[in-house]
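Deliverable D5.2: sample structural annotation.
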Amino acid sequence: MIRVVIAEDQGMVLGALASLLGLEPDIEVVGRAPDGPAALDLVASLRPDVLLSDIEMPGMTGIEVAARLGEARSATRVLIVTTFGRAGYLRRAIDAGVRGYLLKDSPAERLADAIRQVAAGGRLIDPDLAATAAFAPPDPLTDRERAVLRLAQDGRSNKEIGRALDLSPGTVRNYLSEAAAKLGASNRIEASRIARDNGWL
């Protein structure tokens, strides 16, 4: 039996994925997480074979969760299922150790097959996305610049971003300026948009 934890912040999608996988005779959904930190906690306590995760979630993205699991040398393999078909997301996911990457509009039977393949130690990347990612420009942002931009796009001030990341407002301003320069943007809003459009946030 393949033991799976699902991480997804949209309750209806989370329920649908769990119900769908519950129909498979060899797959058991042992936990459900509404955000990234909860996913990490469930993987640590339940030690599933596969973590099925979205990318965009509160607290921590699915890619960040995968990176943390890799640092902890967790045996749980990560399969991303997302609406984001951007090459930047895929490249970052692979760098973080993700074993599979599927779009949410993939056929239902493909999801179960992907879980089986990933659980067995294989990899499954959507071939069209893989081809696109191979020719995509590299992500120019550092992790800190990415974190600052992600909060800036929510409309937070430098002081608020600094409080959230334990940085001074001046340091936040420097990170935003560096990110904007790298992206050829004139301000933080444009920088956030460019980064998101490329899958770098």
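Annotation notes: Strands lie at 2-7, 27-33, 50-53, 77-82, 100-103, 124-125. The longest strand covers residues 27-33.
The annotation will be released with the project's public dataset once the embargo ends.
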